[in-house]
């Protein structure tokens, strides 16, 4: 049997306007998938940034608590913890300052103890890439007389 040329032409003419519809549907599906993946990547980036910032804040709070605890155990040398004057010469304070610099990006600290009143102010500063500078401050009383 020979194929009918008229039939072949009719099927071609009917399929003609529908050509490429599947290709367009696939391209639209790929485009939607790509936008979805870009959204997931952006979400992941924001989550990592927020987690890094939260860890730095937690580290700063821990370091401030650590120096206050050290002062409570070393009340006789409270004035030695002053970062403006004698901290670099006192081993406990210098070690803590080095820990601040190591734990936090661009980390620095300022400790202001008042030996007469026992009031201690601790400020820790750091900076994360692409963000503004951050700081954590706390004040407490270290009782110098029992």
Fold and architecture overview:
Helices cover 52% and strands 16% of the residues. It has a three-stranded antiparallel sheet, covered by helices on one side. A hairpin with a 5-residue loop joins strand 2 and strand 3. It has 146 residues and is α+β, with helices and mostly antiparallel strands. It contains three helices and three strands.
List the helices and strands and how they pair.
Blueprint: H1 5-15, H2 21-72, H3 91-103, E1 108-113, E2 119-127, E3 133-141
Antiparallel strand pairs: 1-2, 2-3
Helix pairs in contact: 2-3
TL;DR?
By secondary structure, the chain is of the alpha+beta class.
Features:
about 150 residues, alpha+beta
In terms of DSSP E residues, the strand content is 15-25%
Strand order of the largest sheet: 1-2-3
Taking the alpha carbons of the first and last residues, their distance comes to 115 Å
Helix share, percent = 40-55%
Order of helices and strands: HHHEEE
Structural class based on helices, strands and sheet pairing: alpha+beta
| Integer-rounded radius of gyration | 33 Å
Low-confidence stretches: none
Kindly report the average pLDDT value: 87
Instruction: Give a quick account of the main beta sheet: strands, pairing sense, barrel closure.
Output: 3 strands, antiparallel
Q: Name the overall outline.
A: rod-shaped
The total of helices stands at 3
Number of E strands: 3
């Amino acid at each position: 049997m020979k194929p009918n040329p008229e039939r072949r032409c009719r099927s071609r003419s009917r399929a003609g306007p529908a050509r490429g519809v599947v290709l367009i549907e696939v391209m639209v599906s790929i485009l939607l998938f790509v936008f979805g993946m870009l959204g997931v990547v952006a979400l992941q980036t924001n989550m990592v940034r927020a987690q890094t910032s939260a860890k730095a804040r937690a580290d700063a709070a821990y370091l401030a608590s650590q120096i206050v605890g050290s002062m409570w155990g070393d009340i006789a040398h409270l004035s030695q913890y002053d970062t403006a004057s004698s901290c670099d010469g006192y081993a406990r304070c210098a070690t803590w300052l080095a820990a601040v610099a190591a734990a936090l990006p661009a980390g620095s600290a300022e400790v202001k103890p008042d030996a007469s009143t026992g009031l201690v102010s601790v400020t820790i500063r750091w900076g994360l890439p692409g963000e503004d500078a951050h700081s954590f401050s706390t004040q407490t009383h270290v009782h110098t007389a029992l």
